[in-house]
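Final report, Chapter 2: Outcomes

The project's central promise was a pipeline that accepts a single protein chain and returns its three-dimensional structure in a standardized token representation, suitable for archiving and comparison. That pipeline is now operational. To close this chapter, we reproduce one record exactly as it appears in the project archive, with the input sequence first and the structure output second.
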Amino acid sequence: MAKKATEPTVVAIGGGSGLSNMLRGLKKQTSKLTAIVTMADDGGGSGRLRDELGMPPPGDVRNCLQALANTEPAMEQLLDYRFKEGCLKGQSMGNLFLAALNDISGSFFGAVQKLSEVLAITGRVLPVTTEDVRLMASFDDGTEVFGESKIMAHKKSGDRRIGRVQLLPENPPALKDSLEAIENAELILLGPGSLYTSIIPNLLTDGIAEAIANSDALKIYVLNVTTEDGETENYTASDHVRALLSHSNGRGLFDYCLANSEPLPREVERRYAAVGACQTVVDDEELERMGIRTLLRPMLDCSDGFAHHDPDKLATEIMSIFREKSRTKIYL
């Protein structure tokens, strides 16, 4: 799909597979694209590298770089390759690239910039912070868990609900480039992605929520297609929004909630029900009472047997909404 002659400046904030999936569609719509990525991951290969080398977790950043890359398929296959044996078992080659560049450049931000050049990416990928941060969750039964990778297992081990999450140390400084990107954005997107472990940690980084609230950009929250096993079981759309607002002083985060309108196929619905998850219920009347307008669009992809957004349909709907709702006259 050809890009428009006048492209909007877009900032997408989140982490995990939801953000990288959306970026694959957005890069076909605009080159003025910045992904701001959470740095709270402490599991898997990323967790091992941060523990052993003292570097920020590279996994979510790597996924976004790959999504925005403009290179031969062989390079993407190389970055995505995971070792199957030995001390590197389970480790991603892309993570190791970033670890080497982190050492060569002397900073994680520098490493991300260098790999961005190698991959000739569309737009930019920025860590929300380069501080060494960890995520802690407090549950409604009074228990607490330290470490992003342990939250899901603890929630599933008992009848409990996540109350709040926080970063330790608290209020880490945001990367200056990330704050500037938000300040200059015409369209800001939150999500899709894991509510408590991919999206909210960005809002707990000092300056990010305030920069979003102060922005005159059009702001959209992209709601997850389904609830997430071990994190948001039984959550409606308004539950997601309420959690976001309660972790960010409650005002100015977004104008609209963009949600998928297509029902899950029966077999996919059964697969999610088996683990206590389901299609996210869009309670638009409650959202309206909260001052959030709902936009329902057909954006579902279940081609692999799991429910997620079709990246091209999602990007097309986002740009259509932007042209319709934008306060900037040149896009109308």
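Archive annotation: The mean pLDDT is 93.
This record, like all others produced under the grant, will remain available to the consortium after the project formally closes.
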